[in-house]
Amino acid sequence: MAFDIGLALLVLGVAAWTIAARDTFAAVVGFVAYGLLLALVWVRLAAPDVALTEAALGSGLTGRLLVGASTRSRRGETAATVERAAAVLCAVVSAGLAALVLLLPHPAPTLAPRVMENIAATSLGNPVTAVLMAYRAIDTLLETVVLLLSLVGIWSMAPNRFWGGLPGPGHQADPDSALTFMAQLLVPVGVLVAIHILWVARLRQAANFRVPRYLPQC
Amino acid sequence: MADFLLAAAAFVLAMVAVGLVRILRGPGDADRIMAAQLLGTGGIAALLLFAKATNAPAAVDLALILGLLAAFISVAFVKGVTRPETDDA
Amino acid sequence: MSFIADSITILAVSAGAVFFLAGTVGLLRFPDSHSRLHALTKADNLGLGLVILGLVFQAEGLLTALKITVVWLVTLLCGATISQLIASTARSGGASM
């Protein structure tokens, strides 16, 4: 119990520091640390699948994108009005989300029982995997199509001076460097781990699908 | 045994939390990257201890992913620091 | 048998926690980036390694024990290369010298 309180305070502290940090790169490091801690919180809430997604996408991928953005914008300074507008927008969105969660009726409306009724048809054991890969498969495919179309649209409509050229390898890799060695070793390991996670997720039982039932019980 | 492992997990996390101060203070970028790396490793240790203490084998898989991610994130940070002018795909 | 396994686990996990403590103290107190990196790698390799050694004795199957060891090996490999990269970052001016 004390452990959970400590973890929650730590998450809040890191989040507060990330907002207040002066240097953009330091803020991105803080954001990645916040994402890793949030993954631990998800594990404590007995939702390891969400924790996996949070660690991989929320910290890893988003952190990578933010680092790229921060190095490009490091030399500029954002105007105070833009910062204030962003702060107000974030506060409004957070207040809206908090209101939604706190005003949920008891018991909260949930589709979890319907998911569990029909799960035998998908021949998958884990309800999270079933939702992501079977029930919402078309949804994910269409999201990818929308992203692709937006990318093509942005490329076509952007003014000439913003066009950076065809995307390609960002730099010439030195074949003897430590980075190349790690890349050569990590890619097979990564593929093996991905296959393992997919296999285990397929077989894992429904005990992990507690997140939608946890919030209404609070 | 479960209590001991849980206490060890809490201790490791407390250590890592203290190490986060280095992200706050670290006068250079390398120090911040190091603090994030410590958080990754400490998180892996805490997760494994958790998985055994609370009998949640899924956390071991998460620790595996976290290990790979920590490497990926650190590489992204290092690239972000040392090549600020090159356009990166 | 289980008493021996339990005592090995307690010893190894405690030793691992001590190394995490040492690594954190080093990260905070050492004067410049390179010595901090040295402290960090101790926490990485030895701290995590001892914790995992302790947990291997508690694992309920060969597969789990192997998986935990793979986690340590991956962290070892990545830690070694990342230390090289961080050190070169520190040397090329992104650190306090």
Task: Please characterize this protein's 3D structure.
The complex is a heterotrimer of chains A (about 220), B (about 90) and C (about 100). Helix content of chain A is about 70%, strand content about 0%. Chain A has about 220 residues and is an all-alpha fold. Residues about 205-218 of chain A have low confidence and may be disordered. Chain B contains four helices and no strands. In chain B, helix 1 runs antiparallel to helix 3 and helix 3 runs antiparallel to helix 4. Chain B has about 90 residues and is an all-alpha fold. Chain C has one domain. In chain C, about 90% of the residues lie in helices and about 0% in strands. The radius of gyration of chain C is 16 Å and the shape is elongated. Chain C starts with a helix and ends with a helix. Chains A and B meet through helix 1, helix 2, helix 3 and helix 8 of A and helix 1, helix 3 and helix 4 of B.
**Domain module count of chain A:** 2
Shape of chain B: flat
Share of residues in helices of chain B: over 70%
How far apart, in Å, are the first and last alpha carbons of chain B? 48 Å
Tally of contiguous helical segments of chain B:
4
Oligomer classification: heterotrimer
Number of domains of chain B: 1
User: What is the residue-averaged pLDDT of chain B?
Assistant: 82
Helix fraction of chain A by DSSP (H/I, runs of at least 4): over 70%
Radius of gyration of chain A: 21 Å
Order of helix and strand elements from N to C terminus of chain A: HHHHHHHHH
What gyration radius of chain B follows from the Cα positions, in whole Å? Answer: 16 Å
Instruction: Determine the structural class of chain A based on helices, strands and strand pairing.
Output: mainly alpha
Instruction: Count up the helices of chain A.
Output: 9
Mean pLDDT level of chain A: 79
Percentage of residues in DSSP E strands of chain A: under 5%
Question: Which band does the percent of strand residues of chain B land in?
Answer: under 5%
